[in-house]
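Holo prediction — zinc ion.
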Amino acid sequence: MKQSTTATSKPKLTRDHTIGYYEQKRELVDIKAERPEYQDIASHVLQDVILRLKRAYDTFFRRVANGEQPGYPRFKGRNWYDSFCYPDHAGWKLDAYTYPEGTKGVVAVSLHLSKIGTVNVHLHREMEGPIKTLTIKHERGHWYCVFTCEVEPKPLPLSYEDVGIDLGVTHFAALSNGEFIDHPRYFRHAEKKLVKLQQVVSRKKRGNRRRAKAVKRLAQAHRKVRNQRRDFQHKASRTLVNRFQVIVLEDLQTKNLTKAPAPKQDEQGKYLPNGASAKAGLNKSILDAGWSTFTEMVSVKAASAGRTVIFVNPFQTSQVCSGCGAVVKKDLSERWHSCECGVELDRDTNAAKNILHLGHKALSVGTRPTRATA
Ligand SMILES: [Zn+2]
């Protein structure tokens, strides 16, 4: 809606008036005057909150326009709000520090936050470039400072090896060259421990002090598994990016995989095994594996290293023979691909080879210059 040009103190709101980012930002001045507690918050931190709101709605409307069914942005009350962000260098200062060369130790530094005070920060790694933003985050009883830095890309020397990757359950990843990356064993151990701790929590009554203690222990165990998984994924993605020039991954739609398989019945109406229990185990491992986080890590590292990542539709990649293209039907329990053309392969290696083929196909279609444009 256009605002009238007559100088009134506030624009009159009508039904079709949209309150956007800039208008809300201007309103902060009045809000600060009305609510003194807001004066204790750095102004750029307040503006960032409005920016988050804008981003949430932008994403929402973009997905609506794409025909998706996004959830409506939720109100985040103070118990849900676990971080705030300094979008620039105003309102905070990190003391000078020297990071000991060649070590991976933790360095204690003072961080001054305006109107909050000075806090001690344990730096876990050296800043790799000029700091752009600072986010203070509270997660399960721990406070974190997250710095984002502007990092120069670090291109790696060209590699002449490409790879297709099938992310799976038996192995974390099967590579098209026949190698495997296995799930770390400690995930299973950790899983058992989580189950046990969860049981302890459920045995205790709500509001009980011991329950609170058990909840805390469970949260700690969860944090540990999460950190271990991240660590594993970082290392695995680094290995792949260092070694291969083109990395082809499945375009994951984990949602489809986690759906329960339809019940199967024989001619008399008796229920047959439909692989549901196999899939139930699969679901658990999918949640374990965090594939989408992993593919994201590969993409980010590849972008910096000058590598190419291609996502292909994994439809039928486990059924088609990578040697001759024939369809060899197998259900989930069949781990071996055996084709009449003579190809004998692990099921996942065969899939990885197909994924690589699809990637090369996409690459040749996408990059070949056409005569019309030449
Ligand atoms: Zn074949």
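READOUT: Residues 209-243 form the longest helix (35 residues).
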